[in-house]
Specification:
2 domains, nine-stranded mixed β-sheet, eight-stranded mixed β-sheet, 42% strand, mainly beta, 17 strands, single chain, SH3 type barrels, elongated, 1 helix
Length: 178
C-alpha cells in the first residue's frame, strides 16, 4: 500500500528509452474518487491544458520513480476537464472534512492510501486535526469502508458511517508497508 503524496515530485520515466518525460505534480480522480491518472508538471505557468498519464499506462510506482509504457501515454487535457484531483482540481481531496452521518467531524484528509497493483480504489484516509493536534496526538488513519456505497465522497465533505469514529487508529499503528 502506498500513500498518494509519496508519488508527488517523483520523476516519470519511459520504460524502453529511460527518458524522463516529467515529474508527478498531482493525481486525477473520477467522480467516484477512483484514481484515473497522474498529472505532470507543466513548464507554462498559466497553461490552459495539463499533461496527464492515464493510470492504465503506469507500469510501476517505486520509491524513487514512476515508470510508464511510452511517451505516447502522455496526453494533454484542458484544465477545466480536471474536476477532481488531490491538490489542484475544482474539487480537491486534500483537506476535505470527513464527517459521520451523525455530523461529527473526524478530521480533514491529509493523504490517501491505495494498492497500486490492485486497482485504483482509495483504501484508507490519513486524517489531520491541524498542526498542533498532529504534534500532540498524531494523525489518524481511517480504513475506507468495504462497502463503497457506505461512503459519500462529496464536493465539500466525505460522509462516512457513524461506526467510523470507533475505527480510527493512530497512523503509526496502522502498519503502512508497501
Amino acid at each position: 500500500m502506498i500513500k498518494l503524496q509519496q508519488l508527488i515530485g517523483l520523476p516519470v520515466i519511459v520504460i524502453h528509452s529511460g527518458k524522463q518525460v516529467g515529474t508527478v505534480k498531482d493525481a486525477w480522480f473520477d467522480e467516484h474518487w477512483q484514481l484515473n491518472g497522474l498529472i505532470l508538471e507543466c513548464a507554462k505557468w498559466f497553461a490552459s491544458s495539463v499533461k496527464i498519464v492515464a493510470w492504465t499506462d503506469v507500469l510501476s510506482c517505486g520509491e524513487d520513480t514512476v515508470i510508464i509504457a511510452s511517451e505516447e501515454a502522455i496526453i494533454r487535457m484542458k484544465s477545466k476537464q480536471l474536476l477532481r484531483s488531490f491538490y489542484t482540481g475544482l474539487v480537491k481531496l486534500k483537506d476535505l472534512p470527513v464527517v459521520t452521518v451523525q455530523g461529527l467531524q473526524l478530521g480533514r484528509v491529509s493523504d490517501v492510501y491505495f494498492y497500486p497493483n490492485q486497482g485504483t480504489q482509495i483504501i484508507g484516509y490519513e486524517l489531520t486535526d491541524g498542526f498542533v493536534s498532529d504534534v500532540m496526538e498524531g494523525r489518524k488513519w481511517l480504513r475506507a469502508p468495504s462497502d463503497p456505497d457506505a461512503v459519500l465522497l462529496g464536493e465539500d465533505a466525505i460522509i462516512v458511517p457513524a461506526v467510523s469514529e470507533a475505527e480510527l487508529e493512530p497512523v503509526a499503528a496502522s502498519n503502512f508497508k508497501g
